[in-house]
Structure formats: C-alpha cells, structure tokens
Amino acid sequence: MIKQGIINYFKNLKYFFTPLGTLALGLIFGMSAFIPGVISSVSKFSNEVQTILSDTSIDFSALKDSVLSAIRSLDWGDPWGAVRTMTSSEWLMNTLSGCVSSFVESTDVYALQFSAAITAFTSELAAYVSIVIVFLMLGLIGGFFLTKWLVRRNMAKRSLWKYFLHSFVDSILSATLVSLCAWLIAIWKPGALISTIVSISLFGFISLLEAYIVHAWKKVEMKEIVTAKNVFILFATNLIIFLISVVMVSLVTALTNAIVGVFIGIVLMEIAFIVIGLNAEAYVKGVVEGRA
Fold first, then answer.
1. What is the DSSP string of 156-183?
2. CA dihedral defined by 193, 198, 200, 204, rounded to 10 degrees?
3. What is the C-alpha end-to-end distance of the chain, expressed in Å?
4. SS3 assignment for 43-66
5. Of 50, 196, 215, 232, which residue is 20 to 30 A from 283 by alpha carbon distance?
6. What is the DSSP letter of 109?
7. Which residues 6+ apart lie within 8 Å of 195 measured at CB?
8. Residues 6+ apart with CB under 8 A from 142
9. Contact, 187 vs 55, CB < 8 A?
C-alpha cells in the first residue's frame, strides 16, 4: 500500500498544471478588477491630499518623490510584509505626515483630514483585495474538484450510484466522528487532545470502511480490508506523501522565493491531499480486482 500510494502521488503530478491553471485564472480575473480599482483609488487619494494642502506652496512633484522613496525603503525581500506595511493606515499616516513636514512647519492642522482620506483609501484597497481573494478561492476550489476528478479516473474510478453511496456513507460516518469529538471536548478538558488522536486513528478506519462498502461489499471479507494493520499502513502512507510534499515545497521556496513557493505549495499540497483521500479506495479496488 505504501509503495502504491507513493507511486500514485508522483504519477498524478502530471496534473500539476490543472490546479495551477485554475489558480492563475482566478488571479487574472481578480487582478483585472484590482489593478484599475487601485489605480483609481490612488488617483483619488492623491487628489484629496492635494486638495487638503491646496493652501500651501508645496512642490507636489518633490512630495511624490519623497513618498516613493519611503515606499522603496521598505523590505521588498519580504513582498507580502512590504505590501501589508504600505497599505496600513498607521504607515500611511506616518509617512505622509513625515513627507509633508519637510515642506510645512506643522502637520497637526492636517492630521484629521489626512486620517479621513487614508481611512477611505485603505477601505477601498481592502475591498479590492477581497475581490482578488474571492477569485483566488474560486480558482482554488474549481481546480481542486477538476483535479480530483482527473486523479480519480486514474486511481479509483467509480459509477454514479457508487458516488452517491460513498457520499451517503461518508456523511454518516463523518457526522458520527465529529459528534464524538465534540462530546469528548465538552465533557473533558483534555478532550481536544484526545479528539485529535481519535480523529487521526479513526480516519484510516473510516476511509477503509467506506471504500469496502462501496467497492468490495460481498466480494471480499471485511476483516481482510478493515484491519488495524491496514489502518496503520494507510496512515503511514498518507504521512509519507504529506512529508514528501512539504520537502518539495520547501526546496522550491528555497530555490526561488516566497511568492513562487506559496503557489507551487498550494498545487503540490492539493494533489497530495487528493491522493491521500483516494488511497483507501485505490487499495480496496486493487484487492477486489486481484480476486477477480
């Protein structure tokens, strides 16, 4: 089971560009709204600042250069951190006040107006970021289901009625497991730890039981499939696949950068979890086909 599970993982990496493509598509749609929106917000914010400072003799070209210099001084080796800092109300207020103070004696008289303009600007930015996140999530979810469909065709293809049967069985067993864990947490303080251990232990059992009911009912004895040994081997298989994915993501991040690491990591972990979710079915189908 371990060998087959690892082979299945590497074999299904051929679908790497499917979730990456849907993720990229989500990013493209999100950025198509984000970029013009941010440009419009920056333009509006710039006009508001000029209006606030209209009674001064500030050289706005020099002010612009001063703000750009502050932006360039951020740590762009950590792009996510730099963007978070640059779009925070506190940083914008301090930077704007600091830059303006080079041209006027006191910025206190403009503080309230600056604050209102910055609040409106950051609110608009947050809205556009939310749009990007929504499209990314749609791309991620769409890619997951499309990739799962492709991987299932290789590992554990099943008919429509078996799909509904598996969904029904999974709903009952999963609800039972969740209820058990919730009950443990409610009646006992160490329940959270115990429920985690129970969840991990029962995951393999439930996966094998579901796979047996759907693929091997009355074809193979249940005691040959749902055993403590198989549960442990399935757990070990899934853990190895997960660790291989973590190592691959770490290597990619080390060789490139954090942004590439995030996107590649999402895709590799997505395929890993799909394969992990289908390992039990693939094993049971293999046993049944071996007896045919």
1. ----HHHHHHHHHHHHHHHHHHHHHHHH
2. 180
3. 19
4. HHHHHHHHHHCCCCCCCHHHHHHH
5. 196
6. G
7. 180, 181, 182, 184, 185
8. 22, 26
9. no
Residue type, 241: I
Distance CA 207, CA 212 (A): 9
Show the CA angle centred on residue 55, arms to residues 52 and 60, nearest 5°: 70
The pair of structure tokens assigned to 124 is 């608009």
Q: What is the pLDDT along the chain (292 residues), one digit of tens a residue?
A: 788 888 888 998 999 999 899 999 999 999 999 889 888 888 888 888 788 777 777 767 777 777 778 878 877 777 677 777 877 888 888 877 777 776 666 667 777 887 888 888 888 888 988 999 899 989 988 888 888 888 887 776 666 655 566 556 555 655 565 555 555 555 555 655 555 555 556 667 777 877 777 777 778 888 888 888 888 888 888 888 888 888 898 898 888 877 788 888 888 888 888 888 788 888 888 787 777 5
Q: Which DSSP state fits 216?
A: I
Q: Look-up: residue for tokens 């703000």?
A: 67
Q: Which residue has the tokens 């094993």?
A: 283
